[in-house]
Design a protein that fits this description.
By secondary structure, the protein is of the alpha/beta class. It has 13 helices and 21 strands. Helix 11 crosses helix 12. Bound molecules: zinc ion. The site of zinc ion has 6 residues, from loops.
Length: 439
């Protein structure tokens, strides 16, 4: 394996830590957390931590108690106090990332040299758990420019491992297939919808997809698995067309942390030297293992933009049982939705993502989006707009939603091109799938 390391952690040390007992992992994390808090005290938002440092932390506290004694940090905090977070005077900044700004303004995230190494190590371990090795050739169908951090993370993770990166960037199926034929990558990294499009393009153009060199697919940006960890319809179609194994991943720019699946496909491994993960309820209370709630991440060892207990706004479950791959680090289940998109409907809680996943499975549906408005009784009025050029029966779609979700939102069927136009006009870089008109 490559000899690169971050703070003394290379692949060998990472595997050793994940193979040690949960107690040893937790003790290690407690030490790293205390160090992280001392560093975070240097940024104005966390200056209160300096006072605690003067009267040192209660060293009798365990990991959970230490964390739960600290306030949460929200995305709104980053938006409202942008000058309170970044640390630019302790170490030179080598890269500046911008969040994609889906929830308002972009946040500027400065990376020091150490942060870039940390980023590479994080992605390298995630790739390693998906079976990427020194001899691997990895086709990266993601962009490295426009201040996105994800593309840079994948690229530097590949080189950290000593594997070969093929920086093909997004789009243009014909060009991608040219690269696949000439450079014979065994791993491909991309967004699920694009990888499906790439596979279907090949089928239409008489390329034998299953016979290609690709045997491992790492999906990014969108969920490839449902709550129960089985593949989404798009995920299943990708595996079928490519005859390759999917490894789903999750991460975000603000918390400088990425989770990757191993061969068990039962959630993304938490990387113990890089992050501590909690799942909380609406009141900020930490939930027991396996319960659905908001993911809170404390990224350990970040220099330029340290965060403590950052509320991601994403909904998922955390699992602590040992994994069948032999690692004892926790796993984060598939992202089930965004907290801000939660729908209150007929006494139950529903996320638009669940509706999208059901409708991916229905033949004849090209695209769909969800509209939500306030109702006088405090619940939400949910409308699912479905694009189809077939003579699709509205009641048929409703009965599928009823069977799978146990609730039936209102359904409207419109011509495929009209639905696509609404989603593309509103969405910018991505198609917009959720329209929130609630006050
Ligand atoms: Zn595993």
């Amino acid at each position: 394996m490559g000899t690169k390391n971050w703070n003394g952690y290379g692949i060998k040390e990472a595997v050793e830590l994940r193979s040690s007992s949960p107690e040893d992992i937790e003790n290690k994390q407690l030490l790293l957390l205390r160090r992280h808090l001392l560093h975070a005290a240097n940024v104005p938002f966390y200056s209160y931590l300096a006072e605690q440092a003067e009267s040192p932390h209660d060293l009798t506290l365990d990991l959970a108690a230490t964390l739960q004694g600290l306030p949460l940090t929200s995305r709104a905090d980053l938006d409202c106090y942008p000058d309170q977070f970044g640390l630019t005077d302790l170490a030179p900044i080598h890269d500046v990332a911008l969040t994609s700004g889906t929830n308002g303004k972009s946040v500027i995230v400065p990376y020091t040299e150490g942060d870039l190494k940390r980023l590479a190590f994080n992605e390298a371990v995630a790739f390693y758990s998906a079976g990427v090795r020194e001899k691997s050739r990895v086709l990266l169908t993601v962009t490295l420019d426009r201040c996105f951090i994800a593309g840079l993370a994948y690229y530097s993770g590949v080189t950290f491992l000593g594997a070969t990166a093929i920086r093909s960037g997004p789009g243009q199926p014909a060009r991608q297939w040219g690269l696949i034929k000439s450079l014979k990558p065994d791993v491909i990294v991309g967004v699920p919808t694009f990888l499906l499009e790439l596979g279907r393009w090949a089928q239409k153009n008489n390329v034998d997809v299953a016979a290609s060199s690709v045997d491992t697919i790492i999906t990014i940006g969108e969920p490839a698995r449902k709550t129960d960890c089985t593949l989404t319809p798009v995920g299943a179609a990708i595996e079928e067309i490519w005859q390759a194994r999917i490894y789903s991943s999750y991460g975000a720019t603000e918390f400088e942390t990425a989770f990757g699946e191993c061969s068990s496909g039962s959630g993304g491994h938490v990387h113990p030297e890089l992050m501590i993960v909690e799942v909380i309820d609406d009141n900020g209370k930490v939930l027991p293992e396996g319960e659905r709630g908001e993911v809170v991440v404390t990224p350990l060892g970040v220099e330029g933009f340290p965060l403590v207990r950052f509320r991601t706004g994403d909904i998922a479950r955390l699992y602590s049982s040992s994994c069948s791959c032999g690692w004892n680090s926790q796993r984060l289940g598939p992202i089930e939705g965004r907290l801000a998109q939660r729908l209150k409907y007929r006494g139950t809680t529903l996320y638009p993502e669940a509706i999208f996943q059901v409708l991916q499975d229905v033949p004849g549906i090209t695209d769909c989006y969800v509209e939500v408005r306030n109702r006088a009784d405090g619940a939400d009025d949910v409308l699912v707009v479905v694009g189809s050029d077939d003579a699709l029966d509205k009641r048929h779609v409703e009965s599928i939603l009823q069977a799978r979700l146990r609730v039936v939102p209102k359904v409207r069927i419109s011509p495929a091109k009209d639905v696509l136009e609404v989603m593309a006009t509103a969405g910018g870089r991505k198609l917009k799938k959720f329209f929130d008109y609630r006050s």
